[in-house]
């Protein structure tokens, strides 16, 4: 478990985007991070990953954490498989061939993995990074709006893959504005509003109940 205590962040001394946030990141849990636009969801993920400096020390867990977002850098001239092998070699991790084959099949990447990344859509890039994250066995995975670039079939598949990964004592935090997906994938919901965070068990009966807490703040 990671204990986040009194996390505060403001851009250039302006109004606090995150104001003394305290919450726990538990193992084996999928969190959905919800909030209106501008509430600080991406800022929070960047602070947790250490991409933005804040008042908390992330060194105890940052090495076990991967942040998946739209601005990740790729070697576009490589194929997906070549890029994956570069990362595994750099990390000195042996490829788990069985897991790799299973992920390629589930995420419909068997053919695409042989193509250059320059031909990939954003959704395929997210799939590639997720495969790498699983193969490297990251304990904590942060995902910023991963479902906006996926079709219905790909989204359903990713939901199942993520839920299964979390069951092995891993943690996934997903920032999303897609309430239906949040209800389906989450064990817990983190609501970010006015610089504060509230945690809810995902016992909501429908998306209207989730929408109500977002609008209430």
From TrEMBL:
Pfam families named among the record's database cross-references: ABC_tran
Record carries keyword Nucleotide-binding: yes
Keyword ATP-binding among UniProt keywords: yes
Superkingdom as given in the UniProt entry: Bacteria
Domain (ABC transporter): residue spans on this chain: 2-216
Record keywords, A-Z: ATP-binding, Nucleotide-binding, Transport
InterPro entries cross-referenced by the UniProt entry: AAA+_ATPase (IPR003593), ABC_transporter-like_ATP-bd (IPR003439), ABC_Transporter_VariousFunc (IPR051782), P-loop_NTPase (IPR027417)
GO MF terms held by the record: ATP binding; ATP hydrolysis activity
PANTHER family linked to this entry: ABC TRANSPORTER ATP-BINDING PROTEIN ALBC-RELATED (PTHR42939)
Protein name listed in UniProt: ABC transporter
Source organism per UniProt: Clostridium putrefaciens
Gene expressing this chain: ecsA_4
């Amino acid at each position: 478990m990671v204990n986040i205590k009194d996390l505060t962040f403001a851009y250039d001394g302006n109004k606090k985007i995150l104001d003394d946030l305290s919450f726990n990141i538990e193992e084996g849990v999928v969190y959905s991070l919800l909030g209106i636009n501008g509430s600080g969801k991406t800022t929070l993920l960047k602070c947790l990953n250490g991409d933005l400096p804040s008042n908390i020390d992330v060194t105890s867990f940052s090495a076990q954490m991967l942040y998946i977002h739209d601005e990740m850098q790729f070697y576009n001239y490589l194929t997906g498989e070549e890029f994956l092998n570069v990362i595994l070699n750099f990390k000195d991790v042996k490829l788990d061939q069985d897991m790799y084959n299973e992920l390629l099949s589930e995420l419909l990447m068997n053919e695409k993995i042989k193509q250059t990344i320059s031909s990939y859509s954003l959704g395929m890039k997210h799939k590639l990074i997720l495969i790498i994250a699983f193969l490297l066995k990251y304990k904590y995975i942060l995902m910023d709006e991963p479902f906006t670039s996926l079709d219905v079939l790909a989204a359903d598949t990713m939901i199942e893959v993520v839920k299964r990964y979390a069951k092995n004592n891993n943690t996934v935090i997903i920032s999303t504005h897609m309430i239906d997906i949040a209800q389906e994938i989450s064990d817990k919901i983190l609501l970010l509003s006015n610089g504060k965070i509230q945690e809810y068990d995902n016992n909501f009966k429908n998306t209207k109940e989730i929408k109500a807490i977002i609008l209430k703040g």
